[in-house]
Structure formats: C-alpha cells, structure tokens
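Weekly sync notes, structure subgroup
Attendees: PM, AL, DS (notes)

Item 1: joint prediction request from the bench team. They want all two components modeled as one assembly rather than separately. Inputs as received:
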Amino acid sequence: MYERYWKEMGEKTTLVISGWQSISYFSDLTNLCWFLEPSFADSVLRLHKLVGNAVTQDRHIVVGTGSTQLFQAALYALCPPNGSEPMSVVSAAPYYSSYPLMTDFLKSGLYKWGGDAHRFSKDNNNNNRRPYIEIVTSPNNPDGSTRRAVVNRIDGILVHDLAYYWPQYTPITSPADHDLMLFTVSKSTGHAGTRIGWALVKDKEVAKKMTKFIELNTIGVSKDSQLRAAKILQAVADSCDRGGVGSPEEGQATFFEYSHNLMAKRWNQLRAAVEKSQLFNLPEFPCGFCKFSAQSFQSQPAFAWLKCEGEMEDCESLLRRWRILSRGGKHFGDTPKYVRISMLPRDQIFHLFTHRLSTIQS
Amino acid sequence: MYERYWKEMGEKTTLVISGWQSISYFSDLTNLCWFLEPSFADSVLRLHKLVGNAVTQDRHIVVGTGSTQLFQAALYALCPPNGSEPMSVVSAAPYYSSYPLMTDFLKSGLYKWGGDAHRFSKDNNNNNRRPYIEIVTSPNNPDGSTRRAVVNRIDGILVHDLAYYWPQYTPITSPADHDLMLFTVSKSTGHAGTRIGWALVKDKEVAKKMTKFIELNTIGVSKDSQLRAAKILQAVADSCDRGGVGSPEEGQATFFEYSHNLMAKRWNQLRAAVEKSQLFNLPEFPCGFCKFSAQSFQSQPAFAWLKCEGEMEDCESLLRRWRILSRGGKHFGDTPKYVRISMLPRDQIFHLFTHRLSTIQS
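Output from the run, pasted for the record:
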C-alpha cells in the first residue's frame, strides 16, 4: 500500500552507501545500545516529537531486527534469570498470533506463554499470585481495538506493543507514556523488508539486558537498514514539518495524510462489500480526536477482524472457497468464526478481495 | 583491516536503494527460504565456485542475521522438538567463547551447552550414549587450527562453522563437503556491520526448520543488507575472475591477494614482537597447498592465540597492565595462560599492539 507513496517521493529517500562504510560491528560505544546508529536514533526522536504518539524523554532507545526481536529481548530482560519456574506471558484475546509462537518455540526456562490475559486474571487471584508479563497491543492486532492492561495487579510487568499507534490507523489522543514501548517501521512506513524496530525503555537495566539479548542473538542490528530507516523516518518527519525544509508544497499530502486517506477509502470499500454480502460483520470503533491531525475520526486499522454471522462456523474455510486468503480466529485465541485480513496489500489485490467478498452469498 | 581495500575500490560496490524498493517481507516465494534475496544467493554460489572452499551442489541456502543467528537456527532445527531432555551441544576446547552463551542464554529445553567435546567424548562411552551436536570450527576460533569432529560416533550431528575458511586465512585444500556449513561476510569481506551470514544445508527438512527459526526470531533478514552483501561478494568474485569483466588490471591485487598479503605481513610483525619480548608463545601451523592461490603457505588466522610462558598465570591481566585489550583463555574453555587477540583491527591499532607487546619484559 505504501509503495506508491514512496515511488512518488522519487529519489529523496534513496540510500547510497559505499563499500567501505559502516563495516564495523560498532555504531556508538558511548551509547548503552552500542549498535544503535546515531542518525537512526535522531530520526526516531524527531518523529515521535512531531507526531506526539510517545514520550521519549528519559527513555533509552534499543534498536532491533524488527519489533519481533525486541519482543523477545523484552521477555529476556524482564524475567528473573534464576526464577524457580518460567514466567507467564499473557495478552488479552484476540491477541497477535505470533506472541505464543515467539514465546514458546525455544521452550525457554525463563518464560512461557500463559494465554488470554482475561482468563489468567481470573485464575490468578490472591491465593495464587504467579508473576507475569502482560503484552498490551494498542491498537490491537488483530481487531484494532484500543487497549489497556487487563490483569489488575500493581506488581505486573507490562510491555506495550504500539506498532499501530500512528495517525493513519488511529487518532493520536495523547503521547503514550509506558515503561517499555515497541515500534516498527514495517507498520509506520511500510518498510517491512528492512526489518527495523525500536523500543523506548524507561529502566536502564532493562535496556541493558535487551541490548545483551540482541548481542547474543544477532551481535547487533544491520547498519545498512538502520541508515535506510533513518532516511525514511526523516522523510516522513520532513513531510509533516509544515514550513520545514522538506515539507510538501501547497495542496500536496504529507505522508500521514496520504496514508490516512488511503486507509479511510479502503475501510469504506470494505464496509460496503460487507454490507452487500450480508454474511459478515466488522468491529465498530469509537470516534476520537487526533491531536496530530486536529480532526476526529474512527480507527481504521491495518487489519480487518471479520466475523462470519449466522451458522457459519469456520470463516477461514469459507473464504478460501471464494479464493480469499485469511488467518482463522483460533490462531489469535478466539473462535474460528473470526478471520484476520490485511488492509495493506497493493491496490489491485485489495480491490479483488473486496470484490470477491461482496459476492459471497449464503 | 578491510576498510582500506574497499576504499580503494571506490564506487564499484556502492549500494543504491530507492525508498520504494524491497518494501515487502518476501523475497522469493518459490524458495524454501522465502526471505532469501535471489541476487544474494547468486553471489554466494558464484564465490564458492570460484574459491573452491565449499560444495554448493544439492544444498539449500539459508540466509541469517550473521552466522550467529544461523548457529541458533541450526540448534533449533537439529534438536527433536519433544526430546525428554535438552540435547548437548559440544565443541573441542578452546572453542569460540560465544557458543556456550548463545546456547544457554534462554535456558532452552531443546539444547544445552555440553562443554569441551574431548571431555564429552570420554564421559559419553557406550554405556551412556547421550545425543549431541558437535560444532566443528575450522579454521578454529580462537586458535586457528584446522579441525575435524572429535566425538567419534556415527550418530552424532555435526555443524561446521567455516567462517574463516577463506584463502586470506588458510590454504583452501579442498571444497568443504558437510551436511551443515556456516559462513559470514564479517570474516570473508570484513562487513561485520551488515550482519549477513549464510548456511549451506544438505537436508531439506533441516533447511526448512532453520528458515522457521528465523521467521519466528526476526521474520526474515534485512533485504538492504542482503542486497549490499550481494554487491560486495560479486565484487570479490569479479576481482578473482581473471579475464572477467571486473577483474583487476595487470599488477593490481585481487581481494584475496590483497588480504592474504596483509595477513602475512601482520603475522610476521606479530611473530617478531613475540620473539623480541620472549615472554609469549604463538601456535605454529603446518604448511598446506592452497588450490585457489596455487601456492603453499601456513595458516595466518584472524585471531592470535597467545600463550604466556613461564610462571605467568593470568595473561589477560598482564596484557591489560601494558594497555593491551585481549580476551582470556577461560572464556574459550582453556586456561588463563592464553588470550585471544584480533588480527583484523585498523593498521594503527595493530602497530600499536605489536609495539607494546614487543616491549613487555618479565
């Protein structure tokens, strides 16, 4: 979806890197995160300040090979190294289907997937207080809802996955101000193949341990990709910085205007298709005032969390018969009546999808 | 050490990548390793064929965020998912100090560090046959020796770490022909900050499981870095391909001639310093015929495995007093009489190091 925007930007965001540049393992030995490229850190700080979606003051930036690696780094950093049993990692269902897989694939003795946070909260009353980490994904993947922590305990450890807290998807109501927040370029600018994410971390020791994880896991993070991500994030910031050096001309859209409008158009198109078919249901989102764009709108998430109405039990199979690929609700800790569908493919694919969906009859 | 060569190469290896390129997660959906950039795979195959250091026929290429990630991917792929106890991972001492750390940092239930392969082999006789993976590093890090498997069992699983099996470090006597071989650009061309390694894998299911590991760990590998590594490896191949399009002019050195000569010079310089001081000892290497360069020479490894002679017990502390940073033998499963020192720093640092070493008196 973002490809066209970046094509229209032309050579402004072209990365040029000579054969002899950035050869060493190290980026900045004075930084706690010694493999963090200073120009990438600068671009992160500037963009958060402009968009107003996260507090960056008194935070350490840890860069990762996508926020996927940072998720694992966070678990490693937050679990006691010598706990008597693995710490439970929970998230309210429906949750991102990769969380259980990433948590459990190495059968770590440090942490284990604990499932739905609502259920954990019920089982985990005062007579049975197990330590836990709760992942709060807001806006949520897969259903786009705005979320807060579910397990109501003062000693709980929270990780906020804010991959989708950008103004093309949801109103920016206030700067997020949590202990550990995860972001990624895949979702903010569309550069998934670059594999760059970042964490904003309040506690110095946690940031150090996350850095240690990445050191042991991949000895740092691609410099080439950090330099590229820096260029892309600066271009996004330039486009927002009205009156600045790289700001768009009169009548030209900023990056977030462009992508916001495209998402709005796609959600309208999807809702029209769903209405036509009458077999499905989509979540409704409350209207919120976005301080960044100074307008009110409803969330328009990167995924559609589609529900089959009536007696249809397996929505994924139904859609497959109509040649629509989706991911069934079970992967997300929910019933197979739901599926997740990406709202971000290329135009042609998205049009084909909504067309096919609109023609499905019971 | 390599920086100067790449500077002299000028703009030939400059990577130019537009803002809209390589945005997607996917590189090649027809390939088992779906995030492998085809141009990177091509460059790997071409270079191995030219250098003759590894058999690539009937092998799957899996790309990783450095060979560090591929090491972990290999452990994940080779251990049974439902074993009753973690599989032992062993390597003959002295071994690369990161192996135990990478194996144990997540307290995996799949595998655990089993220490020195010689000791494991003794304890693990026919009455006590535990399954194991042996890491064979050849040339070895830290001591530069040429190695074969130590544990003598037909049911052992071997991983060959061949990061240093390149003609600047050691004679290429024959193409390595093992089930699972690891390589990295950090050591072959010096581009450590690019974080790109590759595995040559005979068994399709193992290659698939390694791909799965990288999918769960980082959802693929930076495309930008793969494209850059492809360009660098092609330039190295061009320089070797006498008479080819990019081959050096008469009298100009190929990449491997340049780096071989520099390593030879540095080893001479180090041996002279060691002789002058009379407090230390260095390993001697047998002479071998290199089929690639058609000449005989002794290994000139990327690390010096320096031993303090006499009563000196802690070589690392001794060197620190003379302002030389090194890594003590204990990290490598050996005595503190040894230290590992990098032979690859910038010229100035290397000169300073040999100068300081030569002046150390008992």
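Discussion: The mean pLDDT of chain A is 94.
Action: AL to compare against the crosslinking data before next sync.
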